[in-house]
Specification:
Layout: H1 12-30, H2 34-38, H3 50-58, H4 66-87, H5 90-109, H6 119-131, H7 140-159, H8 166-184
């Protein structure tokens, strides 16, 4: 008897995240960036504006261009299904908390710049994956990933003149590690 080849949805949360990011990018191209400015990036704006609160979460879906998008989405597609298998619906909490914390932090400490992109979520996933595994103590993989990754982010933040928010990577990574340690309990 021959097995039938089929395609199936193995990670609905991950695929939904990627789908929303894809839609945001398409809308950005169609609107010449207007939708990104309105919904998919966060920046210092009036607390009386309801879109300020939408942007605090939705900035993780927006990307500057296709290269920015693909560099984040490949990590999401690689790590998301593995994490979704372990954490199920809790992965939505990881995405939401990471978006909110990085958005608030950015708006408070960097009010004159715009933040967008899924890199905070990517680094939350990286450290969450490093926590995944054993039940006792702190895994050595988490310690090693944190040392190498944190070191590279601090180095990049000090010596690179780019438009990358290393602090968002660090906050996202810390969010993932903390939630992973909490979820292991």
């Amino acid at each position: 008897m021959r097995k039938q080849f089929r395609i199936y949805i193995n990670a609905p949360i991950t695929l939904a995240f990627v789908g929303i990011c894809s839609l945001a990018l398409i809308l950005a191209y169609i609107s010449n960036g207007l939708t990104t400015d309105l919904f998919f990036s966060t920046y210092n704006s009036s607390l009386l504006n309801i879109l300020t609160y939408v942007r605090l979460i939705c900035h993780v879906f927006g990307h500057v261009d296709f290269n920015h998008f693909i560099s984040n989405i490949l990590y999401i597609l690689l790590l998301g299904p593995i994490l979704e298998e372990k954490y199920h619906q809790k992965l939505i909490n990881v995405i939401f908390v990471t978006a909110l914390v990085t958005g608030i932090f950015h708006n408070i400490f960097f009010p004159n710049t715009i933040l967008l992109g899924a890199s905070g979520v990517v680094f939350a996933f990286i450290l969450l994956a490093s926590v995944t595994g054993g039940k006792e103590g702190i895994p050595i993989t988490l310690i090693l990933v944190a040392i190498f990754w944190l070191g590279s982010e601090i180095y990049s933040g000090l010596f690179s003149l780019d438009n990358i928010s290393q602090i968002t990577h660090i906050i996202g990574g810390i969010s993932g590690a903390v939630m992973g340690l909490i979820y292991r309990q």
